[in-house]
Specification:
CATH architecture of one domain: 3-Layer(aba) Sandwich
CATH superfamily of one domain: Transcription factor, MADS-box
Order of helices and strands: HEEHHH
Number of strands: 2
Radius of gyration: 56 Å
Mean pLDDT: 80
Helix content: 55-70%
Number of helices: 4
Strand content: under 5%
Largest sheet: 2 strands, antiparallel
Strand order of the largest sheet: 1-2
Low-confidence stretches: none
């Protein structure tokens, strides 16, 4: 019986798909083994099932074959001699262009500093003068901005010092007021012998005691 040609598309039936995977996986592993034995070739085969299960075969070691494969890719990816020559030539051209730009910048710098102006035309001198005037204007603007920022900082410091001075003046005034109150209060020294207290107590003999009659008015 002639077997029909299998269409290369995903099998929709899950059971049929799993059966086909198992059969063809075993056949693929068998072919890899036969290739390695019959032809003395290094073969590595890695298969992941739809559920993520790993199946592998290697004639020697999977890691060794993968390492050899990476080294082979690095060697093949290196540029050829012609490509190396072209890259070198391109780098030389870029270096030459950079050198020319640096020379132009150095020449412009010397002209801005007032050196090497003998070969300059009137138009070049006018351009240099205009550029210098623009640079001076920018510098003055920046200078003014810095001055304003410094003035604002000094004003803030002045406010802080004034506030601190007010606090210190209030504390000094309160302290002076307390000292004035303490000085105004009378002080009596109880231990001094010159302090006397008037009482109605009379000390002496009874017969010598006389009664003072206040004068009639």
């Amino acid at each position: 019986m002639v077997r029909g040609k299998t269409q290369m598309k995903r099998i929709e039936n899950a059971t049929s798909r799993q059966v086909t995977f198992s059969k063809r996986r075993n056949g693929l592993l068998k072919k890899a083994f036969e290739l390695s034995v019959l032809c003395d070739a290094e073969v590595a085969l890695i298969v992941f099932s739809p559920r993520g299960r790993l199946y592998e075969f290697a004639s020697s070691s999977v890691s060794e074959i993968i390492g050899r494969y990476r080294c082979h890719c690095k060697i093949n990816n290196t540029p050829t001699t012609s490509e190396s020559v072209e890259n070198t030539q391109h780098l030389k051209e870029e270096a030459e262009n950079m050198r020319r730009k640096i020379d132009l910048l150095e020449t412009s710098k010397r002209k801005f500093l007032g050196d090497g102006l003998g070969s300059c035309s009137i138009e070049e001198l006018e351009k240099i003068e205009q550029q210098l005037e623009k640079s001076v204007a920018k510098i003055r603007t920046k200078k003014t901005q810095v001055f304003r920022e410094q003035i604002e900082k000094l004003k803030e410091k002045e406010k802080a010092l004034v506030a601190e001075n007010v606090k210190l003046s209030e504390k000094a005034a309160k302290k002076s007021q307390r000292e004035s109150v303490q000085e105004a209060e009378p002080y009596v020294d109880q231990s001094s012998p010159s302090s006397y207290v008037e009482t109605e107590l009379f000390i002496g003999l009874p017969e010598t005691r006389t009664r003072r009659i206040p004068p009639k008015i």
